[in-house]
Write the structure tokens for this entry.
Amino acid sequence: MRNSSLELSVINPGYVYGPPLHKQLFSESLASFDIMMHQPPDTEKSLDAWPRVMIHTVDVRDVAVAHVRAMALPQAAGNRYPLAPVMHDTAEIPKTVGKKFEPMGYDVLTAGAPQFMFNVLGVADPLCHRLSRTWGRFLNFDHTKTKADLGIEKWIDPEKTLFDSIFGLVATGRYQRSAGFTCDNPEFAKTLESIPVVELTKKKKSVVTPICMLAVVVAGAAIALL
């Protein structure tokens, strides 16, 4: 910074996923997991189906490494670094998570919403209009400078990030531990010992989405005939 001995580096992460350290230290980036997993059992967050939104994510552990190196390495001073190496389709994340956690007894929301529904609803709703216009589209971020200056050679595997996020949410007690729950990451073995096993109750399937979809199809057909 001009006329100052203070040096500034900026880290710009995308959606930050990864295991939380404590039940009360909860990032809003993980809110989608609450909806996906129907957890905690008293959560008020809900959704009937996922739109197709392309998001860029990064593991919280990669974010931590980047911050430490930005503070320690002289070449980082005065620079801004994007940290969004993984592109996810919000309609595909639940399918990946479902394959892992549904066999353990969790009720994972995997249903996807059709673009056509958002095209029609977008006539009256600004958010649906924006979703329909950006459906499946994405931005690309160049991480060449981030890797070169901060010495980051490899990002944490995206699938590991997704699974560790949920392992961490169970290990901290935010999510219930199902009778069939198994964890293949030894990092969580110690903390999981204190989490009680419970019998999960399945959430009743909503009839709202199928009815809404049918109504949208009928409305769309009516508009086409006008």
About this structure: The CA atoms of residues 57 and 86 lie 5 Å apart.
